[in-house]
Amino acid sequence: MSRILTPRIGARVAATLAGLLLASPLLAVSPASAAVAPPIDRSFAPPTPNLEADPFYTPPATIPTGNPGDIIRARVAKAGPPKARELANAWQVMYLSTDALGNPSVVTGTILVPKDADPKTVPVAAIAPGTTGPAFRCTVSRFINSGSFYEQPSVNQMLEAGYAVAVTDYEGYHENPQTSYIIGKPMGAAVLNAVRAATRLPEADLSPSPKVVVRGYSQGGGATMWAGQMASTYAPELNIVGIAGGGVPANISVVAITLQKAPAFGFLLNALIGLDNAYPDLLFDNYLTPTGKTAVQQMENDDCTVELLLNYAGKQISDYTTTTPLSTTLWRSKVLPNTLGSEKINVPVYQYQGTVDEIIPYGQAATLREQYCALGVDLQWAEMPVGHITGVARGNVGAFQFLQDRVAGKPTTPNCPPPAE
Predict the structure, then answer these.
(1) Alpha carbon of 164 to those of 111, 207, 224, 258: distances in Å?
(2) 118-128 pLDDT, tens per residue?
């Protein structure tokens, strides 16, 4: 049975929630067309933190016609714990997005608007969350409403600085979850469409064309970079002025090797589930042993990041499969296009990374930096002699200042190395 994760998480484990989500594929997607937006359904009851079932998250039997970012449902929610509720009004929304195969999908999320600001003048910050886990109870908007979202400090920071905030749940969070953890296109689309949804929610009363910044760490760092790579073709109307991503899982294959027999192996098994949900032809179930089938069912029924860390530490793929899926041609064909760095991001980027990161290897992040620099990205790189979890707080100061400066229109200070002669 699913349940909401309450603030029972200790400081050590809560910090570790910064987790991982690996990078993902980018399919060309056309900008929003002139389709008529569906009417917004406001009939759902307010969210109740302790309810295991919540029909608000159940996808409609038929996805309505509309544009990516159009809102299907909306309801008033809580902005987080008491401090956040003092800062902002909040709504949960379900909006149109795009899946890994380029088909329409639905995604949920939270829109927050500061109370002490004119909504027509505030910029919008899209926050791409880090790993929360595959079960329905791990849904970010449910965490926010119950006051137990581990990245709430980042949300509050943006609200206090006068930003509206759009936080996506990512794809597939409902009572029978089908999350696409690690897949770049759905992640990037979910982030960009959360901003669109924020500007289209009448209750929020935001400007239709605000300045936009995007930020995230770990899985969120990957989602942030995918949103950046997709923006100019998928959401060219958004006025994105800056992107900040840390602990970026740019190369799934390299990260997968790092996670084998590691304390965070549960993230890798979660990633295989995400790949299988995104690409039905992978048939992950055919590779699983009875132990593997039980583990996958357990993950999707009940496991959030704490369980991913505690229940699967030190394991490896062969503990759950008859054949390692990532060694097959079919699986590699899905992993390869989910590698960041082949497309230019056309807005200033702040990328930060711990040099001794034990979850997201430094080398693959540095390679991403080199690729972006070669493409001409306006990139500021920051590295810190810390591991993955410490990098969350250590990198936040620079990331926040970078985004503040972009909104203020200050000149950038890129530090790409000069091209080799």
Answers:
(1) 7, 11, 17, 37
(2) 999 999 999 99
